[in-house]
Amino acid sequence: MYYFIKGKLAYKGENYIVVDAAGVGYMIYTSLSGIEKSGQTGSDIKMYTYLNVREDAMELYGFATPEEKSMFMRLISVSGVGPKAALAVLSVASPSRIAAAIMTDDEKILTRAAGVGPKAARRIILELKDKLDAAELGIDAAESAPEEVSVITDSRAEALSALVVLGYSAADAKSVLMKLDEKLSTEELIKKALAALM
Predict the structure, then answer these.
(1) The pairing of beta strand 24-29 with beta strand 16-21
(2) What is the maximum span of the chain, computed from C-alpha positions, in angstroms?
(3) Is 58 in the same domain as 71?
(4) Does residue 135 surpass a pLDDT of 70?
(5) Per-residue pLDDT reduced to its tens digit, 56-65
(6) What is the number of other CB atoms lying within 10 angstroms of the CB of residue 144?
(7) What pairs with residue 150 in β-bridges?
(8) Which of the residue ranges 35-39, 76-80, 173-177, 182-186 has the most confident prediction, judged by mean pLDDT?
(9) Predicted confidence (pLDDT) per residue in 169-198, tens digit
(10) The pTM is what?
(11) What does DSSP assign to residue 16?
C-alpha cells in the first residue's frame, strides 16, 4: 500500500520512529540500523515501508534502503518468521551480511537476533538459499561475475557474487576463485576463498 513515506523525523523510540508527512505522524517500526540512520529529530527522512495487516492491528515497518526492505520481504516469506523476527535479524547484520550468512550456512549470525533460535535460522537458510541473487542486493551480476568465471561453473559465479556481497572486489575474488578446484561446491569455494582473502 505504501512504498515509501517521506517527511520530517518527529520522534525516535526504542524500536520505532515517527515520521511527520504532511501533518500526519506515521509510527514506523524499524531496525537498530534504521534508527541510527534516521538522523536528528526535525531532519528530512525517507523510509521504504511495508504495511503488516493483522486482525487486531495494522503496523508499518520501515527501512532506510530498498535492499533492506527486500531482505525483510524475503525473511518474512519463510514459514514461522514474522515481521518482528525479520526486523530483529536486520538489527544484527546488514542485508549483504545476512545474504552471505545464508549462502555460507552461517547460523551464528542469524541466531544473534532476538527470537531466532537454531531451528528458525536453519529454516531461513534452507528456504532462502536458492532464492537470493546478487542483483536483488544491488550488485550488477554482469560486473560481479566475469564471463569466464560464469562459463566455467555456476558454483564459481555464485561464490563470486557472495564474495562481492561481503565487500571484496570482483577482481580479487575472481583471482582467488580461479586457483580453487572448480568441482568444489559453492559453500566450499566461499569458505576457502574467504580464508585466502583474509
Answers:
(1) antiparallel
(2) 60
(3) no
(4) no
(5) 999 999 999 9
(6) 22
(7) none
(8) 76-80
(9) 777 888 888 888 878 888 888 888 888 887
(10) 0.69
(11) E
| Collapsed DSSP state (helix, strand, coil) of residue 80 | coil
CATH number, domain containing residue 55: 2.40.50.140
- Residues 25, 28, 32, 34, CA torsion sign: negative
- Which residues have CB under 8 Å from 154's CB, separation 6+? none
Cβ atoms 64, 49 nearer than 8 A? no
Higher pLDDT: 138 or 87? It is 87
Same domain, 46 and 70: no
Number of domain units in the chain: 3
Domain-ending residue, one of 107, 128, 149: 128
Would you say residue 152 has pLDDT above 60? no
Report how far residue 89's alpha carbon sits from residue 112's, in angstroms, rounded to the nearest whole number: 8
Residue 180 lies in domain: 135-197
* Cβ count within 10 A of residue 8: 15
Residues 143 and 169 occupy one common structural domain? yes
Tell which of 29, 47, 63 closes a domain.
Answer: 63
Tell me, yes or no, whether 57 and 75 share the same domain. no
State the residue for C-alpha cell 566461499.
Answer: 190
